User: Fold these one by one.
Assistant:
Number 1:
Amino acid sequence: MDDDPRLDPTGRLLGDFVRQVSAHVVVPDLTEGPQIGLRRSGRMHKRGRVLVVASCALVVAGAIAVTVAYGPRSTRVGTQSVPATQPPPVSTSTSSVAGGTERITYEPFTATGIDPSLHVTSRFTGNCIRYSRGAAARSYFRCFASGGGIYDPCFAGPQSTRAPLVCPTTPTSSSVVTFTVSTVSSDGPPSPSSIPWAMQLSDGQVCLFVSAAWSGLGPYQCGAAPIGPSVADCHPPDATPSSTAACQDQFTQTSPFAPTDVAKLWF
């Protein structure tokens, strides 16, 4: 459609110029009268002017015609689609697993020691109990600091209890404490099934396993939800691919438990 001369400003300029030139062109009178001798010199002078104007018009028209034929076309004004210089970034998040709850093995160690991405905030020494509910081929510890305080769970690295254990405060933070073990005891034989030490509900609220006498409540105590109302505690999650846990709003026997979707489980 840009090739239509009616839409080209250069074409319109050429048309306007031709009309202006035509208005000044004097067409000679071909009928001779009695005063032919006196008028002929005037007509010759006018013909000279007409020829000059016509010649100029032809030269300018030719130049404009060349511009129209080979010069730039008109451009429509409006929103232009600009091609992206780079593809959009590809998401690398693993916060969800298609078809179910994400199950994560918490590993605070590398082959050479504590994972350097973790930030050690405090160091303690004391006695620990080896959990029987730990996942297969690894141990959880419940540790009691000499100066007071309970740290649960704590994890052993490649050197077992010969090196300091790592005790996370929450699985969603890089802040941890280390615990140097003085003595170790065991609370019984390994459990046939592992129990997650933390879970994250669908609203982002994180709940931690607390080994205590709950009298039918808990044993997961929940922190504040990032958005919206929070639950106080939850029962252990079920073992289905899309896990749910029964949770209540208050730490009371009268507060009802309601099924709540679980997004992540840490073992």
Number 2:
Amino acid sequence: MINHTRTLLLNMRADIDPNFPGEEYVAPDFLVRTVPTVVQKFRNLVFGGEPDRYMLNYRLYQLMTVLHSTELEEYVSAQDSRITYLPLRLGQLYESMFIRRATILNQFTGDFNFIGDLVGGDEDGRLYHSWRVDVTSSSLIRVQRTTKPLDQETFEYTYTDGLSDLIPLLGSSLQFNFSAPVGAEWIVEAVSRPQLDMGQLLAALNVGMLETDELALFGTAPAEPLKTFRNLWRDHDEYAYKFSGLLLGITYLMDQQQPVG
């Protein structure tokens, strides 16, 4: 299977959109596998509880970078040497992914200014946020959040030096101000950057993955290469080797699972 390891870590059928940030090839005949409890625990810690496509692609890029950073990458291609995502280009992903934009609709013109930084997304795994903003009168503006958690509220505003008061973008740490006539409407989109880096994720996994999880993942007396993967996860001092031991154990376990349904 092309991109064998990445596809198993993703465990989703995907309609490939080459313009979507971080998108990689998934074979059209791939069947989603049943997820064991220990793997679901790993996924919740790494991707979040309800990860969107942005989070999945972002974290998978980071995970594959770890797996290809040592000689353990031989196990990544052990089942199938065909890989489409090399060479890894992190800078390009960063530049295209974390955006903030407001697109004004209809014939109106106006100014829309973001205030603050968009943070979060690690816990739920949702990085993409969108809103519909409508200037409904000379003193009222309606903000409708169109991604989870769905919400809507109307705010009063006044102008000072040609710009409105600060208005919150519901369900986020962002605010905005604007200058536009009554009837102006915007589609507003933003993608947050996860706060946890890979070292912090590894620390969380160290705490969260219990001895019972290790037994479920590697077994009591694993044969090679699972024995090597377990020892790396359990005992290695270097970040890339320790993380790779866990990731390869996850991949090998997923490879044994039956397709859903």
